[in-house]
Amino acid sequence: MAEVAVFWFRRDLRLEDNTGLIHALKGDFPVLPVFIFDPQILGELPEDDARLNFIHDRLNSLRDRLQNNFGSSIAFYHDEPLDVFKKLNKDFDLKGVYCNRDYEPYATERDGKINDYLKSVDIDFHTFKDQVIFEKDEVVKDDGDPYVVYTPFMKTWKEHFKEVKPLQDGKDDLQGKNFYQNKELPFLSLQDMGFKESDIKVPDYDVSPSLIEDYEKTRNFPAKDATSHLGPHLRFGTVSVREMVRKAKAEKNETFLNELIWREFFMQILWHFPRTTNEAFRKKYDRIPWRNNEDEFEKWKNGKTGYALVDAGMRQLNATGYMHNRVRMLVASFLCKHLLIDWRWGEAYFAEKLLDYELSSNVGNWQWAAGSGVDAAPYFRIFNPMTQIDKFDKDRKYIKEWVPEVDTDDYVPKMVDHKEARERCLDTYKSALS
């Protein structure tokens, strides 16, 4: 049997500036790249899931590069990860497994099982920090407790960043690296796994100097295409977070850098408080008696609330898998506050639809909107869906793009009265939290 070290691609779908891959390639054995399509994850996806398409397309691109440039490939598997490693251990003389760390609850449980198995057969499991600048307990208070407010976390993050060694330039030379020489490794099509092509495509990201320079001025207006679209690329690691921090520092844009730090803030909250995926961070908020009207939830999902900016956002989400962040705050507030529908319902719907779905950020932002999370908006802060138009879509360009019938008799009436819904929300929250 061939002696190999396995590199397990996960949320790091790139060859350059890939910490775990670099370490694997510096080892003594040929590196066998693998990717595992996990049935537990795929089982929750629609058959035309755009994110799975994106992952598959990206893996095919990497596979082509490995075949054409290095005489290697990527082995595709569709099975439980533990069973895949048992199979690999039968097919090869495994000399080590390398991967980059993942911090979500399911991932940490899965990796624990993999580690236990590999340890039992005397194979080393090497994991590395890659998708964040700081992880776990690297940015905490002086007493070791995690930060639960963003601003002090951000300030400490920046202080620590000044003290670490400069970021690598990301241009790791792969030529001559020791990949396992086999172009015929197992391959799976989408159809082999019961999926099909999606009509929705993940857009390329834009971190051009002009976009970063104007980011603070333009990012709040949904009619402008002035956001980076980095979300899916950071989520699946088609770009290195180190490269993005380098760009933010080079362009001296603190607002853009702060958004990258928000991502790490929510990641460390999920790491320290994994219960928050299903429970309110502020436990008393789980006492709120949500109305959870299913008919009203359907109207919200389909962009038929009668509030034009809310409806535009939901229709954009359904059609493209994307929604402008300013509008995300509004639609989330509307669901939780105006309709008194559980934030977990909205979080689950975003999980199904968003191309840039990230568990930690999604949970964090939904709990922020509901008032139940860390550093959350106070429960009495309720966005007015009409005045938000005046602030962020004054010319109604965004609304007219997604709700063309807005000024006609065909547009649905408002499903709730803003003033009455606001008072109902305040009474409900106040009673539950007192």
Q: What report would you give on this structure?
A:
This protein is of the alpha/beta class and 434 residues long. It has helices at 19-25, 39-42, 50-70, 81-91, 105-120, 150-163, 209-218, 231-235, 241-250, 254-272, 294-301, 308-320, 325-338, 343-353, 359-370, 387-392, 397-402, 418-433, and strands at residues 3-9, 31-36, 75-77, 93-100, 125-128. The chain folds into three domains: 1-129, Rossmann fold (3-Layer(aba) Sandwich), CATH 3.40.50; 132-170 and 205-272, Serine Threonine Protein Phosphatase 5, Tetratricopeptide repeat (Alpha Horseshoe); 277-433, DNA Cyclobutane Dipyrimidine Photolyase, subunit A, domain 3 (Orthogonal Bundle), CATH 1.10.579.10. It contains 18 helices and five strands.
Label the CATH architecture of the largest domain: Orthogonal Bundle
How many helices? 18
- Sum up the overall morphology in one term: globular
CATH class placement of the largest domain = Mainly Alpha
Helix share, percent = 40-55%
Q: What's the CATH H-level superfamily name of the largest domain?
A: DNA Cyclobutane Dipyrimidine Photolyase, subunit A, domain 3
The strands making up the biggest β-sheet line up spatially as: 3-2-1-4-5
Protein name: Deoxyribodipyrimidine photo-lyase
Keywords: Chromophore, FAD, Flavoprotein, Lyase
Site (Electron transfer via tryptophanyl radical): 290, 343, 366
Domain Photolyase/cryptochrome alpha/beta: 3-133
